[in-house]
Amino acid sequence: MRDHGWVELEERIGRLAEWVADRGVVVLSGAGLSTESGIPDYRGPSGAARRHAPMTYQTFTRDPIARRRYWARSHLGWRVIGAAQPNAGHRAVARLQELAVVDGIITQNVDGLHQAGGAHGVVELHGNLARITCLDCGATSPRRDLIDRLNAANPDFAARITAINPDGDVELDDAELDDFAVVDCTGCGGMLKPDVVYFGESVPPGRVSRSFELVGRARTLLVLGSSLTVMSGRRFVLRAARDGIRIAIVNQGVTRGEPYAGLLVDAPLGVVLPELVRRVEALTYAPHRS
Ligand SMILES: [Zn+2]
Fold first, then answer.
1. Of 75, 120, 126, 288, catalytic
2. Which of 149, 168, 170, 247 is the one with CA 20 to 30 A from 212?
3. How far apart are the CA of 155 and the centre of ligand 1, in A?
């Protein structure tokens, strides 16, 4: 972490508050926003690299054993991910939306915590783990329905959780997972998959165009808790830079957006964002007269 020092940090938050109070802000959020909700950021400062390779679309669809192991880990991991609560950062973003200074929210997170924190109209670039989709008929269904079906199909399944990562899989010995029974679509018998974008998959074009549209109309692109390692998020920063839109980044640790940022705050989001809200409220509320 860079050491801004208190005075410099104060100044940066003050300048950020002025930018945000100027309205027309679009938020782009990443894993760093959810770490304080107990969902680890495997690329961030606290994050050792994940021990388990991320699932790819090709492996998921073509390798029945890998798929079985994925569902077993994901089934256990959901007990943590599904119980996660929005933190002060999520609530701050929702408050900025309520104050009509934030016009759009684009997230790389799949945990649904922006909405749980009160935000609406969120573009979920990489989908949402709480939703299940059928790869054959396209039907979507809530995760909790699937949980019930998996519990019923695996009454004796008891394995140990030793680690958890943002995609919702859990680190377990493969041998512990091979008896796990996977269930299929109730409508067509097709293959079910969490409605999230895996490595090797593209973000659905509608979400990308919606995001470019939001960024194109923005006065400020505010990046929160993203190292911008993956192009699916970084391209919006590149577009904003190309179009001369102001870019502010609040992130703890190194970010690849730094060369484009007019303003960088390297500090915990749970500290910066509530303070930002207080200052924006002070700047946007007209003084009462009597
Ligand atoms: Zn189906």
1. 126
2. 168
3. 24
Look at residue 56 and give its three-state secondary structure: strand
Where does the pLDDT of residue 179 fall: very low under 50, low under 70, confident under 90, or very high at 90 and above?
Answer: confident
User: pLDDT class for 136, splitting at 50, 70, 90?
Assistant: very high
Please give the helix or strand (H or E) that residue 109 lies within, else none.
none
Cα–ligand 1 centroid distance for 112 (angstroms): 24
**C-alpha distance from residue 186 to each of 95, 140, 153 (Å):** 40, 11, 14
| Distance from residue 131's CA to the centre of ligand 1 (Å) | 14
Q: CA 130, CA 237: separation in Å to the nearest integer?
A: 28
Q: How confident is the model at residue 76 (pLDDT cuts 50, 70, 90)?
A: confident
Contact residues for 13 (Cβ-Cβ < 8 A; gap 6+):
265, 272, 275, 276, 279
Task: For 250-273, write each residue's pLDDT tens digit.
Answer: 999 989 999 999 999 999 999 999
**What pLDDT sits at residue 162?**
47
- Band (45; pLDDT cuts 50, 70, 90): very low
**Separation CA 197–CA 71 (nearest Å):** 16
146, amino acid identity: L
Burial bucket for residue 194 (CB in 10 Å: 0-12, 13-18, 19+):
buried
**Neighbouring residues of 290: CB distance < 8 A, sequence distance ≥ 6:** none
Amino acid at 237: V
The H-or-E segment that residue 223 falls in is strand 220-224
pTM of the model: 0.89
The phi, psi pair for 153, rounded to 5°, reads -80, -15
Quote the longest CA-to-CA distance of the chain.
73
